[in-house]
Design brief:
Length: 325
Amino acid sequence: GDVNIVSGSFENVSRINTAFGGIITGNPNGDGGNINLSAIGDVTTGFMASGFLNNPGIALTVNDFFPIDTLPGTKKAGNINIDSNNGNIASTNFVLANALEEGGNITFNAGENITLEAPGEITNSGEFGSIDLAFIGDISSIGLTTGEITFNASNTLFANDTRILNRNGGDNKGKGINLFGKLIIMEDASIISITRDEAQEAQLGVVQNSESGDVLLEATSEILLRNSYVGSGGDFGNANGGNINVNTPRLRIIKDLLFNPVVAVAWGITTFTNDNSSGDAGDININASESIEIIGEIPGSFIPNAETFNFDDSALISTTAEGGG
């Protein structure tokens, strides 16, 4: 069933804090329930999952007293909705709406700020415990059909060391990832909307006529991407990459000298298809009414060489189709 938590007015203060616990709705024989948290004031969330992928042996730890082992597969994930009418929302752990067939929607609406932070340190192999975050993500909607992921902050939306992902496994257009705020700041964070890869060939076949979902970043003041990655991709079959749309007065993309990406293979803004797909990369549409600033780790002119160009060497806005058009 669903989980609904509503905090009413108490001396004009209304808060919800589940940072040291978890909320889980899953059914191995059916659908995961919805998770709805709503408060007038601040909302702080811990581990949240509606639906699971069928990954025997996976072990997630919400905290020292709350392990989750060998999660069953759920056909359809429920939606996760977090609302703070007048306050802030802080996500401190995994937010997962993953399922075997249909991923759920993830929606955060804050009257003030939204802060998204990873649950722990990410190793160089992109793993947290036994979870491959390059595949799962800290915040993700995965399935034959993905859900829509939306974060809407009235003021600042801050993502720190966090991976936001949807992976579309079916023959359809994936749902999008949308970020809205007055100021959007991403530091050591990534957003990627992608199709399935060759690892699921045995279960789903060798053909995928699909397209990853679009990505939208929209800020009324500024968007800052520091050591961060925004991407969409077609990863298998005839799959296409989705479009990336950026709307803001000022866009800044910065790579620090000592930054070494550990999960994303590139940084900046990228649409791509890889060598397992004959599809097309999506479009990148940037509408910056005042300025665009790109700062790489080496000052001076940037002259890419098609034979030696390394994604990690410079600030990057690119569309790439390795397998086809």
